[in-house]
Structure formats: C-alpha cells, structure tokens
Specification:
By secondary structure, the chain is mainly beta. It has helices spanning 6-9, 168-171, and strands at 19-32, 36-50, 55-71, 83-99, 104-115, 134-146, 149-159. A hairpin with a 3-residue loop joins strand 1 (19-32) and strand 2. The protein is elongated.
C-alpha cells in the first residue's frame, strides 16, 4: 500500500484546470416607514478557475438597478418632497480560495463598485455607495465541523460604503446564493 499523503486524505479538492461559471440573479424590496421604498434587481455573472487541487481564483461583474418610491432623506433637518427615480451601479471583483486541509479553507476577494448612472438624489437612503464609488477587500476562514456544519470568521475593509443604507442587498453586491457568503468567501461549492 502506498503512503497516504496529506493531499490524498483531502476528500474535497478542486479539479485542476476546471472552470466553473454561473450567473446570480436577485431582487430585493425594501420599505422603511417614513422614508419610502426601493426595489433593486441585480445580475452578476462570475467564474472560477481551479489552478491546482488546493487553489482557485475567480472574478466577475454585477449590474444592479434600483428604483425608489417616495424616498425621503434620513436627515430630519432636510424637508424636501418625497421623490421617485432610479439609478444603476456596476461592480467588478477578483477572488481566491485556498484549501489548507479537508476542513479548513482560506478565502478572500477585492471589489470595486462604481455608479453607472447618476443618482438624482443627493440624500437617497437606498444608495449605499458614495458618488465616487466604493471598494474593499474581504478575508474569511471557514472550518468544517461536519458534513453540513461550518464555522466562519472573517473581516471586511471597505471605503465609500454607507453602513446605514436601507437596502441590505444593495449594500453588498457580491453575495452568492445565501446572503452572507460573498464571492470568494465561505466554503467552496464542492
């Protein structure tokens, strides 16, 4: 019997040279009493390339359109009339995942969000980014406890993102499937 290397014991590995790709589609409706409502739809094509059995890289783009209705300023001293309108944002990201073992995965990503169309409102509670756009990096560690149980820890550094935005979907355009696991974050899709 041949010696069992650490790599052979890893049950879930990437297939070198394989390309995975997909498109995430999403929509969210947000209503905040006294401040209006917003509907955001998003399309986000992405890809991953398996460099080796333990390492893969990826990237993608997203386009989000937000329509808002009766939007009012968050600031009580601004007494402007409620407004209706829409705006679009785009984003690009790169990411990577490294399998340290069959239970421990490191992942990270970097992103840039930019306005495609100008937001007509200076006070829009449904626009989570500054007029100059936003950018940031994510880093996550995922520990697999059992077949369907994971513990994750991570951090994000961002610049130009409004943490008080009314739209949770719109504030993080890099969500895949379950909101909370961004592209390049969490456990890999085996």
């Amino acid at each position: 019997m041949a010696a069992d290397s650490g790599l052979n014991r890893i049950r879930h590995v990437f297939q070198p040279g394989k390309v995975d790709y997909g498109v995430n589609l999403g929509s969210e409706f947000t209503a905040v009493s006294g401040f209006g409502s917003g509907l955001t739809t998003q399309v986000a094509p992405h890809f991953f390339y398996n460099v080796s059995k333990r390492f893969r890289i990826g990237g993608g783009i997203s386009i989000a359109t937000t329509n808002y209705f009766n939007a009012r300023s968050w600031f009580p001293n601004e007494t402007t009339a409620p407004a209706n309108g829409s705006f679009q944002t785009g984003s690009v990201f790169v990411s990577g995942q490294y399998l340290l073992s069959d239970r421990l995965t490191l992942s990270g990503s970097a992103y840039k969000i930019f306005p495609i169309t100008k937001d007509p409102l200076a006070y829009n509670p449904f626009n989570p980014i500054s007029r100059n756009g936003a950018q940031g990096v994510n880093f996550n560690v995922d520990y697999k406890i059992g077949e369907h149980m994971h513990i994750q820890a991570g951090f994000r550094y961002s610049q130009g993102v409004n943490p008080y935005s009314a739209g949770s979907f719109n504030s993080d355009p890099f969500q895949t499937g379950s909101y909370g696991n961004g592209f390049g974050s969490g456990h890999p899709r085996w």
